Amino acid sequence: MTLQCYHSSLNTQRWLSARLDLIGAFIVFAAALFNVIAKGSVKSSTAGLAITYAISISQALTMMVRNFSELESQFSSVERIMFYVNNVPNEDKAIVHENRPPKEWPQHGSIEFKDYSMKYRPNLPPVLHDLNFSVKAGESIGVCGRTAAGKSSLFLTLFRMSPFVQGKIFIDGLDISTIGLQDLRRKIAIIPQEPTLFTGTVRSNLDPFNEFSDAHIWNVLEKAHLKHTVEMFADKLQHKVTENGGNFSVGERQLLCLARALTRQVNLLILDEATASVDFETDSLIQKTVREEFKHCTRLTIAHRLNTIIDSDRILVLDKGAVVEYDTPKNLVLNEKSIFTGMINETGPANAEALKMQAIYGTRDASKIAVKKAHFIGEEPSFSSHLLLEQEL
Known about the structure:
Layout lengths: L1 H36 L6 H44 L23 E8 L9 E8 L4 E6 L5 H8 L5 E8 L2 E2 L5 H5 L3 E3 L8 E2 H5 L7 H10 L3 H5 L8 E2 L8 H15 L3 E5 L7 H14 L4 E5 L11 E6 L2 E6 L1 H6 L4 H7 L3 H13 L4 H8 L9 H10 L1
Parallel strand pairs: 3-10, 3-11, 6-9, 9-10
Antiparallel strand pairs: 1-2, 1-4, 4-5, 7-8, 11-12
């Protein structure tokens, strides 16, 4: 597409050059013709000067038209900027001075949605419908659902990226629509699906406002399993990061995003399919760090792989922008008619059996599951045996 546009631009320039040269030739011809007609009344020096200037007019005319057309094309960017300035509504205020939250907010990280609905544009249907649920402080919530169920849209509402239609969202009892965007967004950490880095240094990407000491940054890098990698750089924390982190691998970029979240020491963490584009080894490192370092934080995780949320405190299942199931993994798995159980069954018999066992016993550790299985008499029971036992209890 770029080559096609460039080819069209070159053709237009050649066409313009030919037409201007033709006009310049006519001007020179006219000057020479008038000198011939006025042969007796015009001095030879004056005639030569006229023809010389007529020849230079052709070049001046070409440069004038070309510069004018270049100026006009360059001003199209200004036109676009003015269109966005005048027609696109601005975000809400970064800081609402009369209603700033306490410096330590949120202390606990509890979340409550009350009759909340959201749409991306006024003329579009809502993507989230009448959400009513709450998240206790320190809980780990797994969010799952089919494609276009509203999982990512749910997380965008916490950052107020789109205007809501109705309802309210409370974090630690504070209505987030009443405070400034800067006060809100700096208190929520997110590890996105696509790792995003900025041109600068490793340190500026982890601490853009220079709020923490180097010792704290090194401690964070160690927890994110990146300390050894950064120590290998000649300039350590001042190592240059190219645009979008192009000089780092995808896994290293995702670990840097994890380190950025660790640096801020927040009580509310959002994981938007944070391990969707990394290998299993990096996935396990991220999951381990999140469980160890954010165990006291409220965590909301969009599931890319169901095994990443199977040990969550509760599972939120969305469908077409509405909450259809919200319970512990164990209760959802024991209900064979639940949507969550259906999603597990679609992963294959062997994997589904393992996920159900993890949900029932509340652990990923196979040895712990084996110990709990030992309480059963006789041969090791299958999931159906567990289901019968739970029903009897």
